[in-house]
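User: Run a structure prediction on this.
Assistant: Running it now.
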Amino acid sequence: MLVRFCRRAFFVGSAATLLCAGTARAQERFITLASTTSTEQSGLFDHILPIFQKQSGITVRVVALGTGQALAIGARGDADALLVHDRLGEDKFVADGNGIDRRDVMFNDFVLVGPKADPAHVRGLKNASEALTRIASAHAAFASRGDDSGTNRLELRLWRAAGIDVQKAGGGWYRELGSGMGATLNTSAALNAYTLTDRATWAAFANRQALEILLEGEPGFVQSVWQHSRQSAEIPKCESR
């Protein structure tokens, strides 16, 4: 989670919040939260945001984006807080002077889902590289988010670790969708395609059709959602508290 503090900031539980003073009237207090689509689609915000608003009087406007897009708007200062999950991207964000004080907020793990028929025979494997190699060898349909999200970045690293260049893959089996996790799962269900998804979104996803979890428990499938403080010195008229 990437947090920019402006004038007055306070914590409620594990969430860092921001209140921008100035010209805004008291009744218009709100923050803009750029979040991964996975977190938004998990249903977490439906539970915690009403509690936060009741306690603080501040409305949270959620903009669901891929992690790459969230990091970009965070670097521009166009959001008050960000929830992201790509450690490599976050390290660069901090190294570039856009954020400080990275903290764990929560963690999520990933699963490989696919059609019950499992044409690539990956069910029960514990090694992602072997599973992806089998999918590529079988030219079995694979739906990729293709949106520079944390999930998409992890998926591409897994393909590279397996020695497979999906950009040069032929046969039309690998499909980049440019969509969020929920939409990607819907496409996977319609196409009987494999896809990588976070477990929280999968748990909340109702339109599974013939899809089921085929691979889980891979050590590389665990990722944290991180919190950072935004470098307030770079934001005019803002100060950390």
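Confidence is low (pLDDT under 50) at residues 1-25, 225-241.
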